[in-house]
Amino acid sequence: MIDRISTDVEATQSQNPNAKVPADLVTTSASGLDPHISPAAAEFQVPRVAKERNMTESQVRELVKKHTQGRDLGFLGESRINVLLLNLELDAINK
């Protein structure tokens, strides 16, 4: 597992060489089906997503911000972003 994660970190780092790779980009949930990522993972991907979708980074960041959910009841869990909902909005904008 350590070797796989190390390899994944190296591959992911090549996408954004100046940023630290968030852990949730190179690990998986128990089921591997979690639709959420951390705000750090979303921010790491902003330059690539903006380029691929012909958008500015600030436009993508605004959508990330819009889809960021805070902690439940203000103290349970962590902030998160539902990637499915974010991608659906990105798709709707690019049509």
Task: Provide a quick synopsis of the model.
This protein is mainly alpha-helical.
Taking the sheet with the most strands, its summary is:
3 strands, antiparallel
Q: Compute the number of strand runs.
A: 3
Q: What global shape is seen?
A: globular
Question: Spatial order of the strands in the main sheet?
Answer: 1-3-2
Continuous helix count: 4
Round the mean pLDDT to the nearest integer and report it.
88
Give the tally of structural domains: 1
| Helix/strand order, N-terminal first | HEHHEEH
Structural class: mainly alpha
Low-pLDDT stretches are none
Could you estimate the helical fraction of the residues in percent? 40-55%
C-alpha-based Rg, rounded: 14 Å
Q: What is the rounded distance between the termini?
A: 40 Å
As a percent range, the share of strand residues is 5-15%
Question: What does this 3D model show about the protein?
Answer:
The protein is mainly alpha-helical and 95 residues long. It has one domain. Helices cover 49% and strands 7% of the residues. The protein has 4 helices and 3 strands, in the order αβααββα. It has helices at 2-13, 39-52, 57-66, 83-93, and strands at 36-37, 68-69, 80-82. A 3-stranded antiparallel sheet has the order 1-3-2. The longest helix has 14 residues, at 39-52. The mean pLDDT is 88.
